Amino acid sequence: MKTILIIGLLVLFSSTVFGADKAEPLLVEKQHFTTENFTTVSGTTLQQVDIGWESYGELNKAKDNVILITHYFSGTSHAAGKYAADDAVAGYWDALIGPGKAIDTNKYFVISSDTLVNANWHDPNVITTGPASINPATGKPYGLDFPVVTITDFVNVQKRLVESLGITKLHAVMGASMGSFQALEWATRYPEQVERLIHVIGAATMDAWTVAALEKWALPIRLDKNWQQGNYYGKERPLDGLAATMLNITQDAMHPIIYNASFADFNVHDDGALKDIRTLPKLSQTLAQRAMARAKTQDANHVLYLVRASQLFTAGMEQDLSTALKKVTAKTLLLPATNDLLLRPENMRTVYESMKTLGKDVQFSEIEGGWGHLDGIFSILPKAQLISEFLEE
């Protein structure tokens, strides 16, 4: 089996994995949204915020056919379709989103946006405001002077975006991983605007284990000599640390079933590694090369800010989860992955039971597969009928 490396969560070969048909691709265009005087949860007002967004399908006259897709940690707004017909791969949920698919763009207007502090600063198809952006007060990149931002801030920027389009009600909000945090935040903070919630491979609040696991992603960046407390703009970038972060994210997101199967040519008897401690095993060399390629599309500070936003997540920013869940009025579909080792399914089973106890309209169905956390992208197609029916209820 050809080596598969999913650096930075979920971004590769969607149509190949899903077995999508060979119909003409849905062509999409990246759009630019700007808003002013945005105050973060941490209390800082940003003079200007810019994010990219894209949409699929048509907004109806009543503007009530809208489905918002919120993306995962190192993802972008590119949830479906292609920017050009000859693009190598389509958006990450292309198997679900499009004409006649589970999220049918003949019926729904589907919108997705880049988050604040999007990791992929060096991707030409990403528009985001974050530490690498120019601080108007200094004319230089913000660096660590950029305020701490939260999942709530991501949602509040999205709210400004959809309201700029005249949209006041969302037929559904759906997201995977960090995107599930945003989807749940929508449902707890703005319940009157969210009719349905689809929460995929996610969590409702962080626990000590997960906060510590996320810090493991930040640590290599902080230890890179080129990081310089975030003041590396115009200088050597902390790519070694960022590449190590990509390695950590990849392994945490994949189950050993697929991870090991991805290296069919692996041989523990590595002569180079045996003869010289300075020579990495061939497996490690391959991983390092791929991780570095991924790191070059990202900004290290942005990754640190995404880590912090995730570490601070708890639904509705409430002191206890039950208080937050009481606010949810949306019909809810919880889709954890059975083999997820990063955001474990037992946590969402507890959330399901809590919501049932609270009298909420909630469904629960586990995604089966060998990818682990990544099953929320690569093994979700068997849930297509369930999602389609849920959206039509």
Short overview:
This protein has 393 residues and is α/β, with parallel strands linked by helices. The protein contains 13 helices and 12 strands.
Mean of pLDDT: 93
β-sheet strand percentage: 5-15%
CA-CA gap between termini: 41 Å
Number of helix segments?
13
> Could you spell the SSE succession in H and E letters?
HEEEEEEEEHEHEHHHHHHHEHEHH
Main beta-sheet strand count, sense and barrel state: 8 strands, mixed
Rg to the nearest angstrom?
A: 20 Å
What best-fitting shape do the alpha-carbon axes yield?
globular
Q: Helices and strands: which structural class?
A: alpha/beta
Q: Using DSSP, what is the number of strands?
A: 12
- Unreliable runs, pLDDT <50, ≥5 residues? 1-21
As laid out across the biggest beta sheet, the strand order is 1-2-6-3-9-10-11-12
Helix-residue proportion: 25-40%
What does the model show?
- The protein has 393 residues and is an alpha/beta fold.
- The chain is built from 13 helices and 12 strands.
- Strands 1-2-6-3-9-10-11-12 form an 8-stranded mixed beta sheet, sandwiched between helices. The protein has a two-stranded parallel ribbon with strand order 4-5.
- The protein is globular.
- The N terminus is likely disordered.
